[in-house]
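Section 3.1 - Work completed
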Amino acid sequence: MQKYIALLRGINVGGKNKISMPELKKTFENIGYQDVKTYINSGNIIFSSPIDDEDEIKKSCELAITNTFHLNIAVTIIPAQELTVALQNAPSWWDSDSQSKHNAIFVIPPATAKEILEQIGIEKPEYEKVSYYGQVIFWSAPITTFSRTRLSKIVGKPSYHSITIRNANTTKKLLQLLD
């Protein structure tokens, strides 16, 4: 049985796409996943599955969410080992400065991290640091100049619908919850 994390995009934000975490947990259990845990209200689910096909898991999760909550929510599935390796390869500057925002941007397939970065545009090194490993983009920016970064302007761009963002604390906590 392999462990996975499902990240739901755009739920419980500004009163839109409301999903109860206890109900979401029950939904995942009802479709056969085991050891189901949710973490905070932003749609982070840790679970075990006998299925090892990420596309099949993604489709079953999205269908269950549609059937239960009547919402079409994009889901990205990350095998536990993949998150572990990505965080082991995070750049040294990521989550190292308390005066900066640090996010992990999870790319929802079929998009790739490279494609998302190309669509967003050239990094502004005076305002932000960006790197990626696999499907995870690591991004840090000083709080004082956050609004000048290219990633702060992603809302409304086509690439915005192919990502889901978690801050560094949430991302690291998800890794801890896998154990």
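Second construct:
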Amino acid sequence: MHDDSVIKQIVATQIGYDRPVLVTQRVSQQYFRNTLTHNYHDRCCVTGIAIDSLLIASHIKPWRDSSPSEKVAASNGLLLNAFHDRAFDQGLIMLDNDFVIHVPSYVKHTEINNEWLYRYKGRRIVPPTVCAPSREFPEFHRKHVFRD
């Protein structure tokens, strides 16, 4: 049986400290982000927000499912704010072939959901300057990610 003071000491050394870890970094992610930032005029293509620290270079066809060339293709990217990036990755919003935003029917209409998701339903994303998303990527997203 352990003494309570020994257990407290072990727990105290385990909580609230940093430890070094080995991480995997996506190669060419900065190139992808720079391309999308330029392509979408430094603004979220859904909301228009222009706070750089909130903008995410989002893959339409997820990174894990993309070929090496698709991972860096601007046509596989959207510049989204952090909230809508997460919603897109979770299948809570999607784009149709005309780049109009849709929300799955199972998402309840509440004051908050209406403000953050349904407000954008039926709106077309702001088009990029040069390289529009290839239709194959939103089609993949609708088939494999969007949950309706």
